[in-house]
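Hi, here's the filled form for the chain we discussed.

Project: internal
Contact: R.S.
Residues: 342
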Amino acid sequence: MGRQQGPAHKRRNGRMANKVPVRTIRKGAGGQQSCATGASMRRLKGTVLFLRLAGTGKVGMLYVWRMAASVSLALSGLAGAQLCAQSNNPPLVQHALANELRNARDPQHPMRYRLHKASPRLSQTKYIYETRDGGVAELVAVNGQPLSGEDAAKEKARLDALLADPTKQQSRKTNEEKDAQRALKVLRALPVAFIYEYAGNEVGKQGPVAKFNFRPNPNYDPPDMETRVLDSMQGQIWIDVKQERVERLEGSLIHDVDYGWGLLGRLYKGGWIELEQAPVYGNQWRIVHFKMDISGRILFKTKEFQTVENTSDYEPLPLGMSYAQAIEMMRNRNEEVGKLRK
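And the returned structure, exactly as it came back:
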């Protein structure tokens, strides 16, 4: 998908060609509309990245939802359902949004998983451990190759330093929580920031899905910097009909987005994100694919932000595990793997 051709023009893997019956979705007085369930899904990586770019002038892949701190939403499922009811959305979308919000803050299911992150210049593979102290990452490969002896020693030293200085992990957790508060501003605005229109039935990876197009609500006035990007986004979301969960989201910028009248920065029209969510262990859903291609200017420097992230190999961790226990666990696992290879 090129930067000038947004997600609305794409069809992947033949998954959008077949139609299947799904439950009836009735129109409201203003036509068929839905809440931004895709954008409000738990630990929405794309939204947080936009916030990091537009709100702080810094860009970095935030493992927000995957870490224990996560996107700690203050919204409950009931609040989500009330927001949907107020915006006169179809029942399927109301239920999906309520489910996403209800699961947005879930400290009961920490996970260990494999994360592969790639940009035009570098790719890295890590294992992420979700703990009560925030996420702990273990680097295992660079550009598709296992760590060299020198790089493995550096990684060990980094983890040793983390163990010796708990303030470093606390600082990371604090940053995650700040990112969560930025995301919360956007999440609260989503039910009213867009107009959603039912766009048909399709077959998703888990079964029947209902598709909804979304576009900016002309009556919505963004109150702050974090929500300003919503006024220039459009896209599609796909909702799993049986599970009532958001399976996929694609969004693109249809206008330039200025910050500080364009003096502080600008996001250029044509930038886009895509993400997919799926059940990864039992009935636990996570974002398993994220892709972004956004051009922007921060002060006087123009940058291109291109990244792809895929996650896999999810497995549960003990509830309440500390970051120190996670590091001990990863080292024990590595010792066991080393013995098996001998």
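Let me know if anything looks off before we file it.
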